[in-house]
Design a protein that fits this description.
With 622 residues, the chain is mainly beta. The chain folds into 4 domains: 83-195, Sandwich (Immunoglobulin-like), CATH 2.60.40; 198-312, Immunoglobulins (Immunoglobulin-like, Sandwich); 316-454, Immunoglobulin-like (Sandwich), CATH 2.60.40; 459-604, Sandwich (Immunoglobulin-like), CATH 2.60.40.1170. It is built from 3 helices and 40 strands. The strands form 10 sheets. Strands 2-9-8-4-6 form a 5-stranded mixed beta sheet, with no helix packed on it. A hairpin with a 2-residue loop joins strand 17 (284-295) and strand 18 (298-312). It is flat and about 125 Å long. The relative contact order is 0.08.
Length: 622
């Protein structure tokens, strides 16, 4: 029922009661017991009272919500004011010069902002000086409580480096607690532009130099700012091809690090570095340069740059071949013959030319070098000059020729530990003449050639046979000495020794002759691979996926044992019976890719490795 309808019904009830006439009065003592008849039923009165209560409650809630909303709006508006950040920083800074960034935090409310902390997010190549908190990407400092309607300020000392004109965005935030334990955060940011570097580096290097020829390049450094730097250091990183020779003043560390000390405003200095580049190519090589300065006891990078030096092809050309090939793979015990070819492309005659070849490698036998040049056996150096090659006194323009040397290789590898592997031969050839063409800036005309030869490995197989074989714990039965028509058992041992390279896909195999049977009894010292018998071909085959270098040299060889049963024929009487034909081993050298192989002869009942067999006991008796 609607509220208006309820009110109209109540009003009609009141009117009806007031219009009654001639109602007899009851005696006073009984008046309390007489009830005036209500115009509403009992159920309607209950519903009416209930609805009145609900309406009153709704009104209370509405008033409460209105008051709460007003209070919430007031306090939320007040809280939203919170702390306002402002940042003071220069719009442009010199690269490498410290500057101040001041952060102001204004508390616009009456309440205290507690446990306030300022975080400065640092972009790439911007660092904070003298602040312990944070890291490379940010720095933070706690400023504590900020009173109502007050301002807190914090100044950060920063340094920025990079390309001139680069814009750096620096973000600042403040975190604090307000209104109980509620946490709030305010963010702000500013930007600045990098100007020219405060320290300027000017390099003066030749545009192109000849490989293996000495040259100089100069570094001039200058503080173009009004700031005084202290603890300045200069570092020049050399490429691998560069060999340092000297500098205008000694380096403080590793031939490439100088402590310059203080570098006051508008002051300058210079450094000259001399060295050579061992390269025959034509590429440019870079020399990275870094300048650092000390602030508050810590070094900071203030400048990074680099200079390049181009390489010019030498007018004196060298080339080397070994045993007729540029990519020859040598083997232990071989004789390696090197042919060194030279050509003068300078356009002018070169005087007093000298060629030196240096042999580097433990497998060279430098005491047996065959050559027309002069040999220094101790240093492994062969020299050709005008004393043994008359044409070198004056090598005409466009003239060419060759010199040679032959050097034998050792038959055994100098292996002392498991890491001694993958041996190679290195021949370094250098040629020079004091004559320098007018178009080159060099002290002499030089040329360089380096020839490397990989040395293939070596793997061998041994075969041993026994009748009495206590070491293998295999008991061989049958008659011994062997007898015609009577079976006798023997054990065959295969031992594989691998030297200087890893071997892949190793395979050992041998054929059982007529009258010899496979018993199926096998043993191996390590690994899961065991010899298997192929009945169709009567071959015993042992396949190994990988054999490590030095296996059997500094430790025990790989070993497999298998048993065979031999029955001599009448034709074997008085002779030694063959129990296994030739054994062959093959594999692939993982270092050179070459094939490796080894072979042993047949095994007979002579049993040369069985110390329990003496004299002719292994001959077959009738």
């Amino acid at each position: 029922m609607a509220l208006e309808d309820l009110e109209r019904k109540l009003s009609r009830a009141r009117e009806k009661g007031s219009n009654k006439k001639n109602v007899p009065r009851m005696p006073e003592r009984e008046e309390a017991e007489v009830f005036e008849e209500s115009p509403l039923s009992f159920q309607e009165r209950v519903r009416l009272i209930t609805r009145s209560v609900i309406l009153a409650a709704v009104a209370v809630v509405a008033v409460t919500a209105l008051v709460g909303g007003a209070l919430y709006f007031f306090f939320s508006r007040e809280a939203s004011r919170g702390i306002v950040l402002s940042i003071e920083a220069p719009e442009e800074v010199l690269s490498g010069v410290p500057f101040d960034l001041t952060v102001s935090a204004e508390n616009e409310i009456d309440g205290i902002a507690r446990e306030a902390k300022i975080v400065v997010n640092l972009p790439e190549n911007v660092s904070a000086l003298g602040v312990l908190g944070g890291g490379e990407a940010f720095v933070e400092e706690t400023i504590g409580d900020i009173g109502g309607r007050s301002v807190a300020r914090k100044t950060f000392r920063l340094i920025a480096v990079g390309e001139p004109g680069t814009e750096k965005e620096i973000g600042v935030s403040i975190e604090y607690i307000s209104g109980g334990r509620n946490k709030f955060r305010t963010d702000e940011q500013t930007s600045l532009t990098l100007g020219e570097p405060a320290i300027k580096i000017t390099t003066n290097a030749p545009e192109r130099v000849i490989g293996n020829s000495a040259f100089e390049f100069a570094l001039e450094y200058e503080n173009v700012s009004s700031f005084d730097f202290t603890g300045v250091t200069l570092e020049v990183r050399y490429p691998n091809e560069f060999t340092f020779e000297s500098a205008s003043f000694p380096p403080d560390s590793l031939n490439n690090y100088w402590r310059l000390g203080a570098l006051n405003a508008r002051s300058r200095g210079s450094l000259i570095i001399k060295g050579s580049v061992a390269s025959a190519g034509e590429q440019a090589i870079a020399f990275p340069i870094a300048v650092s300065a000390n602030f508050l006891g810590k070094d900071y990078r203030v400048l990074e740059t680099e200079t390049e030096v181009g390489l010019a092809p030498s007018p004196l050309v060298l080339s080397v071949v070994a045993n007729g090939a540029e990519d020859y793979m040598a083997r232990a015990g071989e004789l390696v013959t090197y042919i060194i070819r030279y050509e003068n492309r300078s356009g002018v005659a070169l005087t007093d030319m000298v060629i030196r070849a240096t042999l580097a490698g433990e497998m060279y036998r430098t005491d047996s070098v065959g050559t027309q040049g002069k040999v220094d056996k101790e240093r492994g150096v062969v020299t050709w000059d005008a004393s043994n090659i008359p044409a070198f006194r004056l090598l005409d323009a466009n003239a060419s020729g060759e010199v040679a040397l032959a050097v034998p290789l050792a038959t055994t590898f100098p292996i002392r530990r498991l890491s001694d592997k993958n041996f190679s031969l290195r021949l370094t050839v250098a040629a020079e003449s004091p004559t320098v063409p007018s178009y080159l800036a060099a002290e002499k005309t030089t040329a360089l050639a380096v020839h490397e030869t990989k040395l293939a490995g070596l793997a061998t197989v041994q075969t041993k046979s026994f009748h009495r074989d206590a070491a293998s714990a295999i008991v061989n039965g049958g008659a011994f000495p062997p007898r015609v028509g009577v079976s006798t058992e023997y054990t065959v041992h295969w031992l594989i020794t691998n030297y200087s390279t890893d071997v892949e896909k190793g395979e050992t195999r041998a054929t059982l002759p007529a009258g010899v049977e496979w018993t199926g009894l096998v043993k191996v010292t390590s690994g899961d691979s065991v010899p298997l018998y192929e009945s169709a071909t009567r071959e015993v085959v042992w396949t190994i996926d990988k054999i490590p270098a030095a296996k059997g040299v500094v430790n025990a060889p790989l070993e497999a044992v298998f048993q065979v049963r031999a029955t001599p024929a009448q034709t074997d009487a008085g002779n030694y019976q063959t129990i296994l034909l030739d054994t062959t081993f093959t594999g692939t050298d993982a270092w050179t890719g070459l094939s490796l192989s080894s072979r042993t002869g047949p095994e007979t009942t002579r049993l040369e490795d069985d110390l329990t067999v003496a004299g002719d006991q292994g001959r077959v008796i009738p």
